[in-house]
Structures
1.
Amino acid sequence: MASTLLWVLSGVLLYSVVATALSARGFLPDWARVSGPITTLHTERGKAVLDWLARPKRFWRAWANVGLGITLVVMVGSFVLVIFSAVTILNRPSSTIITEPQDALVIPGVNQFLPLSVAPEIVLGLLVGLVVHEGGHGLLCRVEDISISSMGLALITLIPMGAFVEPDEEEQRNAERGPQTRMFAAGVTNNFAITVIAFALLFGPVVGSIGVVPGVHVGGALPGTPAADAGIGEGSVITGVAGQNVTNASDLDRALVDANRTVPVSLSNGTTTTVERSLVVTSAIKDGPTGLGTGATITAINGSPTHTESGFTAALENRSVATLRTENGSTTTAPMGAYASQITPDGPLANATGEGGEPVVVTRFAGERTPNTSALSDMLSQTNPGETVRVEAFVGGERTTQRVTLGENTQTGSGLVGVTGLQSGATGIAVDDFGIDAYPAAGFLAALGGEGGAGGSALTSVIVLLTLPFASVAAPGVSYNFAGFVGANVDFYTATGPLGFLGGGVFVLANVLFWVGWINLNLGFFNCVPTFPLDGGHILRTSTEAVVSRLPIGSRRSLTGAVTTAVSLTMLAALMLMIFGPSLLSG
């Protein structure tokens, strides 16, 4: 990745030097202008079309006024959200979706959440968004009798990055605040309009024509697990286990509880494969108490052969310490419970045990066995701050039993035992006797308003749509991001309903509508951030002028400049913190 980035940066630098030299020597035509790596191609063609479109001036002014009201609301929301996000990142750098600077770029293959498979749809969304955005500015310029110097295409080196409309600077500067403000809001208004149209079509006939193939949808098989060894992997759909039909993950779990070690598994393609179940460690903390690593196969617990998760759980039910034997014949003895990376200094457990900062394994809580982290979390959720409970824990391999007065979990209001860095599983290891990672096909379709969709407010729908491409980090328990109906996940869906006659074309249409709507929604939100040179910064200036002009003071221009500069710089600093803060502060 570093080598590729170096070549790209070298190419950009070379282009900038050569293009600047050619421009300085007059070798470039007048319609091509260079500023570093940015090249703009100017034309005056299309002005007649804008003049014709601008004829119903009252309509366009009314349209822009409605859009301006929406823009102002979004601007205020953007200001609050950006400040809140920046402060949160300062306190917890890992709390943001954008963990690397390149994740802020809408470039498939560079942004980790945007795969190359949807590059055509994303490029189309950007093209539509930029054309309607700049077209809105140009149209309102003509509605408000502001001349257009030129319009055209902007490129980074030779790669198109957007369109632009260049108003006559003097006429724009001399225009009244109202026309100026409507002109700046027009682009965002058009972006939001395209978003509404795209998502209305997506939520309506298109998603209504997509169904989920019955069965358990496999996003992938965990390495070294029985499912992977049996050839079950990405794109597989499990329809039967041990003679029982399965339509979802819950059916699969129930079928496996009653199944033997050797399990026949039916797939949607009509084939049947045999899975030889074994207990594989699918994740493990480094240098944990068990000493086991990912990929180890557990064959016995306390001398009793074990090859299933249910057998693993049953073997640990009444034992705080267990001896695990692996496939290679080695054994390890360790406390088995909820593992945390450290006892919180000055926390309830530290105060009771006299410890602090050490790793700990909690094996019993209030007299009940806690074989894993989930059990401890469930028990804590039923407690209240101030309760005193007996806790059995292992610190440094030594057992200690203490009465602990619980603190308060400020997020849930329940009791707090005082440990940090809780790891999933038992003593930091997670095991699986089958080994698939299910893809939430039905959940993603429901989020798009399809079968099983629960509805909800418009705001909820917007939040869901914005976060779908980041679902694996935005939604607890989800292992996959939703990039559209692409790749292996297409096999999990079927074309049905009113547009079923399109076959696979309905998925192409759904992808286009999703990404066009998503890109335009993000373009609209981003341009509403009140900082220059974004539209939000210009609207902030004209709005501030309108308010200051009514104040009984003499230095109105200075106050306007001070307010807009302060807000703009604050927003710019917060945006930079959002983009670069996680990687810098986490390091």
2.
Amino acid sequence: MTELDDLVARARAWLADDPDETSRAELAQVLDGLPGTAADLADRFAGPLTFGTAGLRGPLRAGPNGMNLAVVTQAAAGLVGWLAARGATGPLVIGYDARHGSRAFAERTARVATGAGREALLLPGPLPTPVLAYAVRKLSAAAGVMVTASHNPPQDNGYKVYLGAGLGGDLGAGAQIVPPADVEISAAIASVGALTDVPLGGLGVVLDDDLVESYVDSATRVLDPDGPRDLAVAYTPLHGVGAKVLAAAFARAGFARPHEVAEQAEPDPLFPTVAFPNPEEPGAMDRVIELAKVTGADIAIANDPDADRCAVAIPGPLGWRMLSGDEVGVLLADHLQRRGVTGRYATTIVSSSLLSQLCARRGLPYGATLTGFKWIVRAGTDLAFGYEEALGYCVAPDQVRDKDGITAALLVAELAAGLKASLSTIGDRLDEIAAEFGVYATDQLSVRVDDLSDIDKAMTYIRTKTPGSLLDEPVISVEDLQPDADVLILRTESARAVVRPSGTEPKLKAYLEVIEPVVDGDVPAARERAAASVRALRTETAASLGIW
């Protein structure tokens, strides 16, 4: 039997077990196109989607290496079986966004759960991921599933898994799964037999809007009820599911309704007005910034499509600019600390080290974790706040133990309104922090590869030819996190480079930081020096990776 014959045999076996007529027709068309479609067929059967620490994510297409009803059925059966084997009690709560296939995947998950004898609770419609994370805790669920691909391209979808308190413990109650749960669930999925033998029950219980109302009420509790509320906000959900919930939260908190980018306000799985539905991407916030200019808004806010991230733009002397995730993270931490919120403030090893200095100066516990909110929220039972530089913020860990773009937007609005009431701005507050602690300039070197082996080569190159200096300063610390994580950290007295492969994309990433002291109160001059240094650090780091 040739390799192609074997591939065709596997595809025909898949066809016989696929429960979805549409994907069966899609795969049959690929088979009919052979041999011209051999590469496409091989890619679809290159292996099952990897069930990682956040679940599944991949392109919507037929075959095991895609998101489709067959893959979701198998994943749901494996998850439900794993929960049963560990004696987990409580319902499975299921949420979904507005992407293609999301509702069907959520409903299939519910039917698999009820078919196995477990109660299934479906959220009442397309809703933000933090609402699902909240529901896992609120409803004492055994686990939660969120069908979303977050800010991925339109052709993708995904399947995130959260654990309840029974299996997640105090730190992981309502949080995304971490090892070894991911490996165990993956093994349970692989052991699922024929999909035609998976029993399917009813849809379970479709929750009403009381759950959403409860989330909105809890979201507003992150604010000082007596704080200023005079603020004009321009907002976009980037064609995602955040608009209604954010508007309700702002109204409940006493803010004026944000001005919305009309052409991006309603959910649209095609994301027609953006090249990439991620507020970090160049151009993604152009429309909301233009709206802010037209309406005279004080700030501009964007959520990503599943509203677990929050982006912020502010006006300044040179026009509007988007704040980095590190800037927003430090601003929110500083604001909470000034309000007297005690507890642990945590971020990741690739985020700015400025947060550690705020905590040290103010006598508060600090935590640094590996990348990802699944680790941030496990920084300690005393967690008060966590953030990652990729626009994710956890401002109410007792309510949502994950990043939450709705509560983050509320807290940004409270900060901006308070500053406005005192005739100040967010830009002014950033300058005050810089004057006190110095300028912490961050940047990222991101290299996309076609061949994943190039990433291994680059990591090997920097490990075997580790530079002795950066920016003309000696490297005083080299920290290699292998075998626990493929991360290398280089430090000098005033600079840091953290190098690692991306966990979600075929990219090699280096997270860079330069610390520049402020001399004689001249913050702009310090920012200029820091910007020049971080550019030079990009060049030196690229050379250290064997990239020119």
3.
Amino acid sequence: MATLLYRLGRFSFRRRRLTLAAWVLLLALFALGASTLSKPTTGAFSIPGTESSQAMEVLAERFGAGSDAASAKVVFTAADPMTAKSLADAVAELKQAPQVAAVADPVFSEDKRTAYATVTYTVPAADVTTESRDALLAVEAGAGVGVEFSGEVTRNAEASHLAEGLGIAVAALVLMITFGSMVAAGLPLLTALIGVGLGMLGIQIATGFFDLSSSTSALATMLGLAVGIDYALFVISRYRHEITRTDDPEEAAGRAVGTAGSAVVFAGLTVIIALAALAVTGIPFLTAMGLAAAATVAIAVLVTLSLVPAVIGFAGRRILPRGARRVTGTPFGERWARGVLKHRVLAVVLPLAVIATVALPALDLRLALPDDSTAAVGSTQRKAYDQLAAGFGAGSNGPLIIVVDAGAAAAAQKAIVGLDDVVMVTPPATDPSGTTAMLTVIPASAPTSEATQQLVHDIRGLGIASLAVTGATAVNIDVSDKLSAALVPYLAIVVGLAFLLLMLVFRSVLVPIKATLGFLLSVAASFGALVAVFQNGHLAGLLGVETTGPIVSVMPIFLIGILFGLAMDYEVFLVTRTREEFVHGAAPDDAIVSGMRHGARVVTAAALIMMSVFAGFILADDTIIKSLGFALAFGVAVDAFLVRMTIVPAVLSLLGRSAWWLPRWLDRALPNVDVEGEALSRRRELAGV
């Protein structure tokens, strides 16, 4: 592999104008495709085959209620009691709005000071136009009557780019400090932005063929920026090292891509495997998000291997800082490594104690999907949610729909009324054929509460054969249950594939095991911090978290997949250099010190960049993105500084030569991918370089 990438690096450097033109042309083609094919994303979560989804299909077939038709609630509030006549003009205006199929008559609270009307559309939420959304939000109800709106239709799909901008600004500062050169600092940013641009345009094209979650672009942007900058950082750092060993810049570019580029390939593969493996969960929206993010990471790898050496060629000697050849003192990485090895037992025990303490809140982890209760304070969705809860009770925001055979409807109603946490059960409504009945259950508790989840399970446990529970709340509960069930097999597949990949890279059994156990420590710490802030509310105000509650159900599986890939990045970049020194004859501890001397500074910069990019997303309004950004930033900090740069060298030192043990039969069976670039070393020796 090293030889192949060496040739690619030299070609891209030598034919840099052609390489740059090819990427620019590709960017233009993607932009053209996106402008032609893109469609709105969706914020809905559903899983085909679950009880709630199947019941939705029955409703569509028997009652003519589109299972995927969009809807919204318009909430009216006033200081004085309202009447249907006082809201007639507003309801008439709603009926005239584009794409509206029907508007239900307003429902009033007991004191008549709160009312709501349900608006049903002719199309799914993804197909509701901006014109229709604007017409809905423009509805007014006269003096003294407040109007707020809730539902997926009301959410603007356009995302703020403040988070990306902040992350890029911090990344630029870190790169400037690391490289000491404006040109060198700018190159990783430039190539990463090109890669992310291609990824985002590709996602826009994909919306023309698939229904993608509204969080898909943000997740892909977050990962694309982080890995794109980091991968370019590693190759450029290696180039600056190689240029001191040869007067031929093209040769230096080839060596940089052949060595650091090999590590980038395998680091990228671990991230891609972790994201693409989300497909095994069988959850469509999760699969789409994972594949979109994996494609963006793959683009980042390709950009690093071909475009980075090309832009290095354009930069020339300006990529080196003034006085670059004056090296004084002992590098930070070497000082850190010697300190860790001197106190190697303490370097294992102390970080473990810190991680265990931080991870403790994870024992109280509660999961649920987001609703309007998690919307930003002050938003119309949050106001509507709070007003409905105040006027009709918390459960009014999450009614349950019961689908049952008409003959069993009366018995079902009587049984459900007797359950805990039930405020009301509407009389059954039958379909035109008289065979199927529908009931609406209003819980006493909020949609994401444990009591409502238990109520859904209790209704399903009544033993009425034809009964099914659906509605947005039931759908969300089914999604959460399916996600929890998918977590263990997903983790087994990701860890298993990555273990084989790492064994191939490191030619060792114990190093991949150590890498995997270290990842579990990082995940545990991330979960603990996530629960402490977003569920329990500690430091929530400091981080701008306005609403606390259950953690978003998709978070564990996303966090495990993404953190695993990123953790393996640092493992590959640090430990491959250690193995390179070891196979060239260095003693185990000397190899560790040498690997840290060359890699610690760059890995520190890479971790700070990833942390800054992820932390920038804490400013996002979307609950999934905000909490994922925080968890990833925290997880990267723990993994890079406590696990990879402290625990890993200490454990490698304790293991000694046995760390690199591999059974002979397995060594013969595994292909030699030459990540360390031994073929390039032999090439230099033969050339007398």
4.
Amino acid sequence: MLPDLTRPFALLRREGRDVVEVLAGTVVTVASLADIPDESLSLVPFRQVRERGFDCVDDGTPLSVLRIASRALHPLADVVACLSAVPVVLSGGAFDVSDDDYATIVAEVLRDEIGRGEGSNFVIHRVFEADVDGDPVAAALAVFRRLLERERGAYWTFVVHTGDRTLVGATPERHVSVEDGLVMMNPISGTFRHPGGVPDREAVLRFLTDRKEIDELSMVLDEELKMMATVATEGGQVVGPYLKEMAHLVHTEYLLAGRSALDVRDVLRETMFAPTVVGSPIENACRVVARHERRGRGYYGAVLALIGRDAAGRQTLDAPILIRTADISASGRLRVPVGATLVRHSTPAGEVAETHTKAAGVLAALGLGGPVEVSAPTLLAADPGVQAALVARNATLAPFWLQDHHTRALATPQLAGRRVLIVDAEDTFTGMLHHQLRVLGLDVTLRKHTDVSSVAGFDLVVLGPGPGDPRRIEEPKMAAMRAVAARLLADGTPTLAVCLGHQLLSGLLGLPLRRKANPYQGMQRDIVFFGRPAIVGFYSTFTATHPHDHFSSEYGDVELSRDPANGDVHALRGPTFAGVQFHPESVLSYDGIDLLRAMLTTLLPAAVS
């Protein structure tokens, strides 16, 4: 039943199945995702994110591909019976970064990155390391058995042996899958630790209403919607949230779904990697991670990728995230990487504790976690109170993303066919803007801020969001974006500016910019938008301010929507321009699509035939 353990193999149990897939074949190393063949299982390293042009510390970890020569399905109980129950013995176990040093890194990221507008959340990892006594493959199979017996709720439980390393784990999270053209992603965030068995109901309800946990999930939901808007023809629909219950952990999760005609390798490339293990916005998060971790990630935060064809010859992809995983070298060196999601609410002590929590599941399987509940307890997901708390999370989220919608289904005749250029400032929120503008009927082009040599031929330009301090106008990105904004103002080209674009537009109009004492990163707020109450989502550390609702500029009179308590400018509008500090495209902006339509119809009056 078990394959030849001296040659490459993989054992996989996928969620909801009472069988184990046994794969065997040969292992090759390839350079890029495009080189991955069909009928293969790939170990994709984090360094592969360079294919998207993103920063990383290149540690040389290979993109290893198991070319599947044989595959079989065996009943779960039969496989468990074949696996050894001998305890795994470790020596010299410790984290590679001490608790104190990790707490210092957390404090630096909160202060220097989130506090300076570089992003809304970042994941910083550390690694539990030890030496395995005895045969590494036998040890990994023993861990696999314990995970099969004791873990629950895992998306994949697996062991993969390439010949020179063995990975074993129980990952809770699908990153991306494709079946019959349907792309699915599965953002998970929020972690509640319990000792095993049935978690305390009241404690779970407190977890479900905890602001930090809600904000974490909302932020990764937005980030994965950005990816879905890029790979799915009609964007992604949000389903959920759900409660994911594991042996010692409870998480909250959403499901995203959308249809795509892309090759599955392109889907995989455009979604590298999950914000739950990197941060947001993803491009700058990669820079921040590299800057503070200062070492490679190996396979942590990347994916296993099972690529094949279904009975009808259509491509399939199933790619779980490589977390809750032990990586054991041929010499017996064991590594268990774990990370904590840092947001504006985070504390160094809390995030140190979270890394211990996340390591606990794998360490328990290694025999280091004490007694484990192995029965199948009643789950809480069906509890009416829990279901009500989950449903309540959607009450103020944007209906646009929660409902099934089709391209141009909301098309507005006044906007139909008008040409719009979106200028990308390194935040793929522009992908969601692109999708919403297309749904409203516009003809949309997206370009990076480095590629905008001319705006001729466009009816409107959208200055997009992005990370960074808008006051540092000497920085190349800020200088380039500011130059585009100045040209648009001078030419009178209709302009809509979002977040960073809004801040730069505000500066050109003469408004002072200040850093907020408490960043609005992933914050939903009730505002008054030019006399209209609205619920919107902010991702900002900086804001323009003004003491009045109107002022005169060299480009005409400007009207402001602002916070009367402190003068923070939420939105502005003038003769040929408008700007919003919030993100109308965000899932946090309940009224986002309506506000976007209103601004566009004002900026683009009906075309003269």
